[in-house]
Amino acid sequence: MKIAVLSGKGGVGKSTVSASLAKVLSERGPVVTADCDVDTPNLGILFGMDDGDFEKEWVSTGEKAVLDKEKCIGCRKCLGICVFSAISWGEGKPEFDRLACEGCGACSLACPVGAIGLEQVENGWIGDAEKGGICIATGQLKMGEAGSGDIVDLVKKRAEQICEKIGAEHTIIDSAAGIGCPVIASVAGIDYAVAVTEPTPSAFSDLERALEVVKHFKIPYGIVINKSTLDSEFSGKMKEVAAERGAEVIGEFPYDKKFLDAAVGMKPVVEIAPEYKGEFEKILEKVGAL
Hints:
By secondary structure, the chain is of the alpha/beta class. It has two domains: 2-60 and 123-287, Rossmann fold; 62-121, Alpha-Beta Plaits. The longest helix has 19 residues, at 148-166. The strands form three sheets. The chain has a nine-stranded mixed sheet with strand order 3-8-9-2-10-1-11-12-13, with helices on both faces. It has nine helices and 13 strands.
C-alpha cells in the first residue's frame, strides 16, 4: 500500500507524522519510506541519518540550451522567443542564462541554421539508505535547477525497487508541502493520502488547496490535526468544517514539547513518547494499513 503524507503549509509536522507512521509499521514487517520533498529532503534526519549515509546516483532529467558558435549567423531570431528571458546578446552571439533556461526548446526551433541544441544536464541525485529496519529512498534537486517532479518520480521508482527486494508491503511517501509539481508527482498512483494540518487559518486554508489536488486524482484521504491544543477552539471549527465537507479527521496530536525533543534527538516521536503510539496505530487502521 502506498500512503502519501502531505500538507498545504510547511512546518505543520508532515515529516514528523511520516516518520512515526513508518516506525510503527516497521514493528510488523519491513517498510519503505520515500522522501519526495526533493528541494529540502530531511526525513532521514528523523531516523538519525545524515547525508553521508545515502548511496547517491546523479541523474539527468532536464535539458538546457547550448549554442554551436561555428554555426551561428547572428540573426537574432532566438533573442525574443524565450519566455523565460534566458537569452541575452553579447559579442554578436546569443548568450544563455543556464539558471533561467527551462529547456523548452523554443530557441532551437526558431534557429534557422540549427545552431542551438539541447543537452542533458545533471540536475539532481537519488539514493537510499537503511537504519533500524526502515529503508529510505530519497533524492535532491540541484539548487536552481528545474525538474522536481521528475526527481520525485525517480525516488518513487527507487522505493518500489526496494519494496520488491525486501518484500515490503507498505510505502510511506513524505511529500513536499504545497500544491506544486513535487506534490502532484508524489500523490500520483497512491492508495491513500494523509493530510496534516494545524489549527491556524493559513494552515487550514492551504490544506484545502492541497486536498483539491487529492480530490482531482480521486484518492481517498483523511486529515490529521497536529498541535491541536495551540488553539483548541479553532481545532473544533476545523473538525466541523471537515465533517460538513465529508472529510474525516483520522488523527489528532496536542502541542507537546516531546515532538520537538524527538526532532532534536533525530528520532521518530514514538520512540521517546510511546504514549502516542496508539494514535499512530489508529491512523494506520483508518488508512487500512493495519
